[in-house]
Amino acid sequence: MSASEPLHTHQKALTINLDPRIFGSFAEIGAGQEVARWFLQVGAASGTVAKTISAYDKEVSDDLYGAGTRYVSKPRLQAMLEHEWSQLLSQLDASRGKSTCFFSFVDTVSARNFAGDNETHGWVGLRFQTQPQGPPSDVILHVNLRDTSNLAQQAAVGILGVNLIFAACYHLQSIDEFLAQLAADLPLDRMEFDSVECSGPAFAQWNPRVVHASLVANQLAEAIAFPLDGTLAPPTDLLYKKAVALALGPFNLEEISRRRIIENVLATLPKQEVEQSKGSVGFFCFSRAPQAADEPPLTAGQILERVDGLQQAGGGVLVSRERELYKVGAFVNRYTKSRVHFVAGLSVLVRVLLDTYKDLDGSLLEGISRLFRENVRVSVFPMPAADLQEDRSAALASGWKWPETNAFVGALDIEPPEPLSHLYRYLIACDFIQPRELPARESSARAK
Q1: What's 119's DSSP letter?
Q2: pLDDT for res 265
Q3: Which of 111, 134, 138, 361 is least surrounded by CB atoms within 10 angstroms?
């Protein structure tokens, strides 16, 4: 198939139905049977569909796939994939295996419920062969459904399923090509891909971490996470109902100090706040968006370079598509009602207050109000005056002042121009901006 010839979902499903090599099963729970429906309605479905099933009843589902897991979870999806693949081969391998590339498509989805108060997301999986009787490969996705109605979300899942099978059959030449086919006709305001795991011989030349980084580099996800333990988990699994601290560089200190700064903020969270949540978690955080208008966004490779450097400092990393703090705060607040603490060096705070927020009608005031309405606090740590000098031209051009010193400069030492200074003092007085001292080890270095 030529990547230069985009096909409609109908054409993709029909192409697969007419390919005599491809045959498989569908097991869909939670968003109708929209994937199988495409193959059944376009014609020649007998050329592709071995079975479709939708086990909505919990007892029926548990009997098929085992009890003891959440119904919309990765373990549940994996149980479905193992069961459906095993059954498909046991029934058909002897009769069709020598000429057929089998596949099993499965999904478990939480689409918009009748009350409209649930988290709308899903796990989607595909196991497939690239040659008859060859070893299988797997793709496991986590997606967030962004449409506002159940019907639209079901339709999006249907498109995704067709895209996934089509991409696995015809578009394995490169990571970017595969992901582009996966997200075809599914813009970010309809569906977000925040975890993609590819394994098996079809992906032997692909680095799983590059695939993961490509989600945000290609703007298929608002943010992705790289936990310190090396797993590739969606942000919802890591942030759900937790108090969150996100460290934004630069701090211009030794890398090991960055982790200690996060720990310092987490240790000062109100006890009641932590008890009312599911604990607390801290990440380093940066954006793939350019910091200046003449800079390109980060590539997947560049993202991984920064992730590796931060993980060496002892922490997991959250990579955001956006650079504005109010957008990052809104993203995290999708998964938690607990407070979000941005942990920032002084230069980050200066950048936030210098931003013109041209995409907002209310400019700076709207940007600041959106940031702090999301139950956000910004903990600001001092940084060496010599390092702050790097941002001096932009700050001085706007009338910012700070002491001439060879020591550190903190949030209480810096003075914005009027009338911004009034807003700045208000944010500090109301504890939205929290001036911090460096942890003990760095404080002793500061005093020298």
Answers
A1: -
A2: 84
A3: 361
